[in-house]
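Q: What would this complex look like in 3D?
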Amino acid sequence: TQLLEQSPQFLSIQEGENLTVYCNSSSVFSSLQWYRQEPGEGPVLLVTVVTGGEVKKLKRLTFQFGDARKDSSLHITAAQPGDTGLYLCAGFRSNDYKLSFGAGTTVTVRA
Amino acid sequence: DTAVSQTPKYLVTQMGNDKSIKCEQNLGHDTMYWYKQDSKKFLKIMFSYNNKELIINETVPNRFSPKSPDKAHLNLHINSLELGDSAVYFCASSLGLAGADEQFFGPGTRLTVL
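A: Here is my prediction, written as structure tokens for the whole assembly.
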């Protein structure tokens, strides 16, 4: 069983639409990161959130960390074809030094 | 300049063989990692070294042995390769500990065991 559950697994939308990806767990995390991975490449960090309830914005991307630090969401406004990729959340627990990735959400934005 | 580099990019080998994947980072980071990404894109941490010391060792068959000759290098040696070892292996590094700092990933090594 995975520590972090991501949903949906796949998402295909038209350019200009909005989308939200969820990352949920029953565990509390010290920090949570979101990465994007393009085919044939390694993941690249988008954001790190550390405070419960924290909201971070990166241009059209909005990241939220749940109040209890067990879940997070990534919202993309007016998606563009360049947003296509595999989005991965990663949670870190400092008490047992456990680092876990979600299974990923494959996002396809059609022009 | 490549921040985290891995060699080879592709590795095709027969079952039972022994192979190594090399990783180097030129970022001056203290921590390095090996991940395995399976065909379903699930990324699982295997090992982590901080200043050449093993700090994360997930449940991985002992056929996998990491070796860190210095802070800038973390190599992965795999003995007696099995079909299930086929995957993409990523090396990564971070300044401090994972979760607090950004991890920089290499381009991956696609291992195919026949």
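A: To summarize the key features: The radius of gyration of chain A is 13 Å. Residues 3 and 25 of chain A are 6 Å apart (CA to CA).
Q: Very helpful, thank you.
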